[in-house]
Amino acid sequence: QVRLCDPGQAVVVSFDSATGAETPTPFHGFVGKQFRPPELYSRSPYLATKVDAWCLGWSTFFLLVARPMFHCADPEESDADWALFDRKAFTKLFAQKGWRQTLSPQAKDFILRLMHVDPEARMSVRQALQHPWLLEE
């Protein structure tokens, strides 16, 4: 028996029967804050699997560094860490957050590809399973 905990943000993901492409999920409000991808702040339909990919990247960073990468990607809020991320100042941001030199470049690439600001360019969870960082021996 499998039990899932849903704090109110789970959605049914659907796909177009003709193309197989994911269909956008209607926006129903916010849950959580720190790991929300920027596209949710438009409050319009979004690709749920791309939100999941973003959250995987955010969570991976947190697990490796034991600190959040930033607190909020909302353009209405002032978050200096998000500003660095949005400007692609990744080296500076990662250094400020305690990214250790012993962490591989593949780990950084894994996170950044999952957290691409453009959801269409963002690596999918399926693609993440084939990323070199996960396949390293």
Radius of gyration: 16 Å
Helix content: 25-40%
How many strands, which pairing sense, and closed or not: the largest β-sheet?
none
SS strand fraction: under 5%
Number of strands: 0
Order of helices and strands: HHHHHH
Separation, N- and C-terminal Cα atoms: 33 Å
Oligomer: single chain
Shape: globular
Number of helices: 6
Mean pLDDT: 87
Helix vs. strand class: mainly alpha
Low-confidence stretches: none
Write up what this structure looks like.
With 137 residues, the chain is mainly alpha-helical. The chain has helices spanning 48-65, 80-86, 90-97, 105-114, 125-128, 132-135. Helix 1 packs antiparallel against helix 4 (105-114). The longest helix has 18 residues, at 48-65. It is globular and about 45 Å long. The N and C termini lie far apart (33 Å). The model has no long low-confidence stretch (mean pLDDT 87).
How are the SSEs ordered, and which strands pair?
Layout: H1 48-65, H2 80-86, H3 90-97, H4 105-114, H5 125-128, H6 132-135
What would the keywords be for this entry?
137 residues; globular
